């Protein structure tokens, strides 16, 4: 097993003249729950799209579980489950048919899809609608289906862009529990979020990105300490990304 599940080296992405991500260096260990925080437009989604192989970097490299994604994209992608912030879901299939479609993309055995698919639908509490069309699902039920399908092929890395958007409190609680459970079973989780409370409850470590650069990284306790032992992480976050004293945080290193 490789100790590092994600390794980003001097990663850069330019849109025309504009560099959305600049020289990003980041390592996430196996089994870690890593939170990627930052204000709107900081470069979170751009970074995530590069990690999951949807977008090519302008420069730098990405290793997933020791595999260079530019050299063996399929092998790297087979290790990743991805939950986008605005997932597309085909409506004219049932929940279970959707699971078969996703499992097929990963060349899973149909019996395995059926068995694990049902277990996951049960876990996400949507097994009672497994044979109903997705068009009749509520927004929260669709999100649960997306999450279930993302871990169907037993990925070692789960990448999640804004996990809590649109979930009710019960759904959000379920997701937090799922992340912890998955991590305890050795799955690495990389999630972007605006919800500081979620980061504080779920993440082992966070990185804060601003204007395409990491401005702070470490455990939430480390960051709080470096920001002057503030009571609430929210205050820390605002201080770290705020207009006040950006320079103070550039020295914050991994704890
Ligand atoms: P949010 O929290 O608002 O989702 P983010 O941190 O995910 O933001 P990105 O979506 O990665 O940020 O965007 C980073 C920057 O790159 C922004 O300034 C955005 O306007 C710009 N950008 C993103 N996609 C494109 C694109 N396809 N073409 C040009 N600029 C883009």
Give the H and E element order: EEEHEEHEHHHEHEHEEHHH
CATH class of the domain at 4-79 and 155-254: Alpha Beta
Major beta sheet summary: 6 strands, mixed
| Helix percentage | 25-40%
Number of helices: 10
Strand order, sheet with most strands: 6-7-8-3-9-10
Briefly note the CATH topology name of the domain at 4-79 and 155-254.
Rossmann fold
List low-pLDDT spans. 243-255
Envelope shape: globular
CATH architecture label name of the domain at 4-79 and 155-254: 3-Layer(aba) Sandwich
The SS-based structural class is alpha/beta
DSSP strand count: 10
Beta-strand content bin: 25-35%
List the helices and strands and how they pair.
Elements: E1 4-15, E2 18-29, E3 33-37, H1 44-51, E4 59-64, E5 67-68, H2 73-78, E6 80-83, H3 95-105, H4 110-123, H5 139-150, E7 157-161, H6 169-184, E8 188-193, H7 196-202, E9 205-210, E10 213-218, H8 220-226, H9 233-241, H10 246-249
Parallel strand pairs: 3-8, 3-9, 6-7, 7-8
Antiparallel strand pairs: 1-2, 1-4, 4-5, 9-10
Explain what you see.
With 255 residues, this protein is α/β, with parallel strands linked by helices. The chain is built from 10 helices and 10 strands. It has helices spanning 44-51, 73-78, 95-105, 110-123, 139-150, 169-184, 196-202, 220-226, 233-241, 246-249; strands at 4-15, 18-29, 33-37, 59-64, 67-68, 80-83, 157-161, 188-193, 205-210, 213-218. The strands form 2 sheets. Strands 6-7-8-3-9-10 form a 6-stranded mixed beta sheet, with helices on both faces. Helix 3 packs across helix 4 (110-123), helix 3 packs parallel to helix 5 (139-150) and helix 4 packs across helix 5 (139-150). Adenosine-5'-triphosphate is lined by residues 15, 20, 38, 40-46.
């Amino acid at each position: 097993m490789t100790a590092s599940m994600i390794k980003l080296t001097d990663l850069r992405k330019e849109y025309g003249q504009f560099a959305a991500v600049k020289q990003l260096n980041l390592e996430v260990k196996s089994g870690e729950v890593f939170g990627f925080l930052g204000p709107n437009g900081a470069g979170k989604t751009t970074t995530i799209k590069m990690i999951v192989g949807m977008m090519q970097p302008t420069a730098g490299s990405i290793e997933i579980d020791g595999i260079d994604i530019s050299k063996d994209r399929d092998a790297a992608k087979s290790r990743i489950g991805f939950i986008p912030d605005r997932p597309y879901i085909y409506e004219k299939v049932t929940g279970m048919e959707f699971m078969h479609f996703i499992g097929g993309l990963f060349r899973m055995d149909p019996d395995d899809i059926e068995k694990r698919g049902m277990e996951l639908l049960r876990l996400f509490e949507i097994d009672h609608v497994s044979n109903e069309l997705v068009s009749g699902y509520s927004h929260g039920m669709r999100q649960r289906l997306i999450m279930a399908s993302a871990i169907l092929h037993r990925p070692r890395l789960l990448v999640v862009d804004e996990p809590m958007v649109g979930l009710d409190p019960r759904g959000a609680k379920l997701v937090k529990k799922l992340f912890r459970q998955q991590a305890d079973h050795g799955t690495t989780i990389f999630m972007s979020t605006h919800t500081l409370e979620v980061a504080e409850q779920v993440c082992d470590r966070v990185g804060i990105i601003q204007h395409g650069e990491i401005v702070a990284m470490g455990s939430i306790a480390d960051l709080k300490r470096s920001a002057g032992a503030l009571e609430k992480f929210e205050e820390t976050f605002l201080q770290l990304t705020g207009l006040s004293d950006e320079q103070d945080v550039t020295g914050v290193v991994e704890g």
